[in-house]
User: What shape does this take?
Amino acid sequence: MNKSNINIMGEGSSSGGKFGRVKVMGEAVFTGDLKCETFKCTGTSEIEGSLLSNEIKVTGTLQLRSSSGSPEEAVPGVKGETVKVTGELRIPGGCEAEEFKLRGTLETGGMLSAEDIEIKLHGSSRVREMGGSSISVKSTSGIPLAGFFNNGGALVADQIEGDRIYLENTEAKSVRGGHIEIGPGCRIGSIEYRHSLQIDKRSEVGTQLKM
Amino acid sequence: MSEDLISKKELLDLTGISYGQLYRWKRKNLIPEEWFIRKSSFTGQETYFPRNQILPRIDKILNMKDGLSLDELADVFSPTLGEVQLDRHQLIDRNIVSESSLELFKEAGKEQPYYNLDQTLLLFVLEKLLKSGDITREEGKMLIGVLTEHYHHFSGKPCELVLIRKMGVPAFLLAGGGSELYFDSGVKVVLKLPMGQFTEELKLKIG
Assistant: This one.
């Protein structure tokens, strides 16, 4: 079966469904789960449901929302092979990918799980949990923000777990991993590491434990 | 019957796998979501797993992953069965079922020219349990009954097959995955097996 493509230029909406390539330039609203091979958006997309796509590329904003009629347990999430976002990504549920790259702000209510997670912070971000092989969170401004007064480019997370972790401007309750490097501007409750740990002197760490 | 749990930390130490592998396998559905049991501890949140399920599963993944891609592995572990039709000769040739189990199936009035996967699974479970000596032929007929009538309710969700006996009277039941069961003291639980175990084995035999 040949899946149809969908192009939205300017302003438009779709009820969601299964597609080949989905391309948005402008503003689009999808009023249901969206399943497609590639999802490319320049502008703003709102999906009232989940997004499942091999390749997801967003320049602008992608926001997922649960539709008003859906049962409570269906929390919209994103699943893809590669997810690349420049801008804003807001997901009530979780996000799963092999490659996850984001430059901008991120808000997920669930777990962000990917082989490779690369985040360049621009504005305040919030993730409940992060897990993967390699996780890197960097602030975009060259000068790390001193102190925590300025929430301009910071990430708040409950838990971060990975084999190789590098963090900047991150506030987390617990970080666990193999090789951990805590860059400047972090406040971490507890760290558990297996192989190596480096902590920048401009960061605060509660407890640290080698396993 | 509180389940024996293993913490994520302990699991990684014991098996030598990394956080990355664990998360990758979870993404690929090699490890089901419901095995991740979250509990809060003094250092924040800690994740636990049912020890008797996670350890053999990781062992299988590590031992099979060279031959199969992760997606193929996921198919093996998924509790749903695909589409297959086998006749009795194929079933016997592939060592899935023996003549005597088929005979019992016939006695129960369920004989078919072709068996789809659900029915093949039923035959396979019957065969395994008869062979291990856990059930009698009479109980085998009850097993056929309970599986034909109720297994479809779980449509792909994990469930467990339980056999109890009280005063020599047997009863079969199917319970949703992870549910706890308690009986009065006169009841002996003869077996309590996840159906997923049978589907995995069967898929390896068919595939």
